[in-house]
């Protein structure tokens, strides 16, 4: 390893200590800031090291950023070029102000990348920016979770490897006034501002926040390296500790008496969860310390609701504290399972595209008042090229999905199960031999599932969530030994379903990320995994209990009935509902018509409603209603109804 490489990786503690007086000089020297002193300044004139040290914070924790040759360096990979929006801010923490004048000297190796400055960062994704863009423009924008709203622009030439001075000024709150200018380093600063705009909209950022630098990937499918020569922020205000914020929070599928809560903070903070019987949290039942899962600032905690009765509303929330400042996340809730024989309602979906926003299917799913929601994979379609680079890109993508208002509103009211399909595993048509192993750790860090496959009992409904990718043998083995589940998961599934039958569960539900028996495409079970499919069909038939299969991945809304073997063919024991493509407009017709009852195309999700138990002539029965719901307006594509008869099967209700 050469000398410069050793300096780049190892850094120099002595140099960092000596540089303390150059970072936020007034605070470093322990004296009052003089009138003309910047609130914060950095000239990066210190020894090589990984990261920038001091108060600099990078939410994209696996980026290659360093001090190299007395310059701040930030490298963006080519793998992100296919994303239309993937900002990479690097912020200064604990110097928060509302009114600020930020300026920096920057250059980039690739003029199709974006470089600039940021101010009023009030959370994970909300801040103002001024930056040079590939279309030879200086822009002012307001960044959000899904895109940047352009507030103003001015033509300006922009080339690679030339230094530019960029300045952004933010003032006021009603409305917010923003001004920006940029000019080549070494030339005189223009007297006039290039852009002067007002942001008076409802989403305007009106409070104090962090400031820093703004980078975004190139658009020419190449990597880029940004270099920062100096940075300064001036303000008449006194900088305060960065206020933490709850980026997202939700609960995973409920267990018998516990549930896993997941939350993230926008900046490093101490976090915990509270549970209460009332929305005001007048008498919290208990407090749970949150445990960090990774460098993405995601935490988890086990919430205990054993003291709550059946069909009870449980209120919970996440809290974060930093520097003596505590913030409270949104009040959320879920309902404990009902007594046996009472109604159960839940929704499910899959194949949620990233680009459309808001995610209207989640809005309509929430309005159906479900007890829980099962997402069966392809949550946002994280591109394989993107997550091949590092897990921080994967986490950033997922965080922005969870920030969508429709998804956030749903997760404040119901638990959320998040399955893994090929997109979550980083490879199209992934199996256990082709998946990217780090995606398992990345996904586990952000979901609230009890495990890679698990059972959820809610009332007298048992849901078995399976993984059809991570344990699959793939097609590279003889057809008779191929498996989508693997031996261990298949044994678990069979044993758990037998136990549910012994416990008199009214309905057994298999939640599969892939179409079980209804899809004739190369991805379906029945084309290349026929032996295992037949084995499972025979097993489900022998259980003597109704089996409902929920399927995703297939991009369509279909209903299939599998007739009972050697019994009445008109009373199936196995029914499959495929409801896939919540915001997905590409649909395929690879359908096996043998068992097809209903079908539809269009974006939508599934709704399952199990009615209250009734005694009909001494026979215990329930109504089961299955609906494929349109994303556009929440109305049905189609609805089918059954009479669930214990020991008999699922009797179709004519006209249902």
Please describe what this structure looks like:
It contains 12 helices and 40 strands. By secondary structure, it is mainly β. Strands 1, 2, 4, 5, 7, 12, 13, 14 and 16 form a 9-stranded antiparallel sheet that branches.
Primary descriptors:
656 residues, 9-stranded antiparallel sheet, 8-stranded mixed sheet, 40 strands
List the helices and strands and how they pair.
Elements: H1 3-10, H2 13-18, H3 25-28, E1 40-42, E2 49-50, E3 56-58, E4 64-67, E5 72-76, E6 87-97, E7 100-108, E8 114-121, E9 127-133, E10 137-143, E11 148-155, E12 164-171, E13 176-184, E14 195-199, E15 209-216, E16 224-234, E17 246-251, E18 258-265, E19 270-276, E20 284-289, E21 291-292, E22 298-304, E23 313-322, E24 325-328, E25 332-335, E26 344-349, H4 360-367, E27 373-375, H5 384-387, H6 391-402, H7 405-411, E28 416-418, H8 422-425, H9 437-444, E29 454-458, E30 461-465, H10 486-502, E31 507-512, H11 525-528, H12 530-542, E32 547-551, E33 557-562, E34 574-579, E35 596-600, E36 604-610, E37 614-616, E38 619-630, E39 636-645, E40 649-652
Parallel strand pairs: 26-27, 27-28, 30-31, 31-32, 32-34
Antiparallel strand pairs: 1-16, 2-4, 3-6, 4-5, 5-16, 6-15, 7-12, 7-16, 8-9, 8-15, 9-10, 10-11, 12-13, 13-14, 17-18, 18-22, 19-20, 19-23, 21-22, 23-24, 23-25, 26-36, 29-30, 33-34, 33-35, 36-38, 37-38, 38-39, 39-40
Helix pairs in contact: 4-7, 6-9
């Amino acid at each position: 390893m050469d000398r410069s490489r050793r300096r780049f990786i190892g850094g120099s503690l002595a140099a960092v200590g000596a540089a303390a007086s150059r970072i936020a000089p007034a605070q470093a020297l322990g004296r009052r800031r003089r009138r003309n002193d910047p609130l914060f300044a950095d000239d990066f004139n210190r020894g090589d090291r990984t990261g920038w040290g001091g108060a600099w914070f990078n939410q994209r924790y696996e980026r290659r950023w360093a001090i190299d040759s007395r310059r701040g360096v930030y490298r963006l990979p080519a793998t992100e070029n296919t994303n239309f929006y993937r900002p990479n801010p690097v912020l200064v923490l604990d110097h928060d102000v509302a009114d600020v004048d930020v300026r920096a000297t920057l250059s980039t190796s690739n003029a199709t990348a974006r470089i600039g400055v940021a101010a009023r960062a009030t959370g994970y994704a909300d801040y103002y920016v001024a930056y040079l863009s590939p279309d030879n423009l200086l822009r002012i924008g307001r960044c959000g979770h899904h895109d940047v709203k352009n507030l103003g622009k001015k033509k300006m030439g922009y080339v690679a490897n030339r230094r530019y001075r960029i300045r952004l000024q933010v003032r006021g709150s009603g409305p917010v006034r923003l001004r920006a200018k940029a000019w080549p380093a070494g030339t005189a600063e223009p007297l006039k501002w290039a852009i002067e705009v007002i942001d008076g909209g409802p989403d305007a950022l009106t409070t104090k926040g962090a400031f820093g630098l703004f980078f975004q990937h190139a658009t020419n499918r190449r990597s880029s390296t940004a270099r920062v020569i100096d940075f300064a922020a001036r303000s008449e205000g006194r900088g305060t500790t960065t206020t933490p914020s709850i980026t997202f929070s939700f609960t995973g599928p409920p267990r018998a008496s516990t549930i896993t809560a997941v939350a993230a903070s926008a900046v490093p903070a101490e976090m915990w969860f509270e549970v209460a019987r009332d929305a005001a949290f007048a008498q919290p039942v208990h407090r749970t310390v949150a445990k960090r899962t990774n460098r993405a600032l995601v935490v988890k905690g086990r919430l205990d609701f054993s003291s709550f009765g059946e069909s009870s509303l449980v209120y919970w929330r996440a809290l974060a504290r930093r520097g003596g400042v505590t913030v409270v996340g949104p009040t959320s809730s879920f309902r404990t399972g009902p007594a046996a024989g009472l109604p159960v309602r839940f929704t499910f979906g899959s194949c949620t595209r990233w680009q459309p926003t808001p995610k209207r299917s989640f809005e309509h799913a929430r309005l159906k008042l479900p007890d829980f929601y099962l997402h069966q994979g392809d949550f946002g379609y994280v591109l394989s090229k993107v997550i091949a680079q590092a897990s921080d890109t994967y986490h950033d993508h997922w965080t922005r999905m969870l920030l969508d208002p429709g998804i956030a509103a749903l997760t404040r009211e119901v638990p959320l199960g998040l399955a893994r399909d090929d997109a979550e595993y980083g490879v199209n048509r992934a199996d256990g031999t082709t998946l990217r192993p780090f995606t398992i750790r990345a996904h586990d860090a952000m979901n609230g599932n009890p495990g890679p496959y698990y059972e959820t009992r809610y009332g007298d409904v048992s849901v078995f969530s399976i993984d059809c990718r991570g344990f699959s043998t793939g097609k590279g083995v003889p057809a008779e030994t191929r498996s989508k589940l693997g031996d261990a998961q298949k044994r678990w599934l069979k044993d758990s379903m037998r136990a549910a039958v012994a416990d008199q569960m009214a309905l057994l539900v298999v939640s599969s990320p892939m179409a079980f028996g209804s899809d004739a495409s190369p991805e379906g079970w029945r084309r290349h995994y026929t032996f295992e499919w037949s084995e499972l069909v025979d097993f489900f038939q022998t259980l003597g209990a109704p089996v409902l299969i929920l399927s995703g991945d297939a991009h369509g809304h279909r209903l299939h009935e599998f007739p009972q073997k050697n019994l009445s063919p008109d009373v199936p024991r196995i029914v499959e509902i495929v409801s896939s493509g919540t915001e997905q407009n590409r649909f395929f017709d690879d359908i096996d018509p043998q068992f097809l009852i209903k079908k539809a195309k269009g974006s939508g999700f599934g709704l399952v409603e199990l009615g209250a138990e009734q005694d009909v002539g001494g026979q215990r029965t329930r109504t089961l209603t299955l609906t494929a719901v349109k994303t556009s307006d929440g109305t049905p594509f189609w609805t089918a109804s059954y009479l669930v008869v214990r020991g008999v099967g699922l009797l179709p209700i004519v006209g249902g």
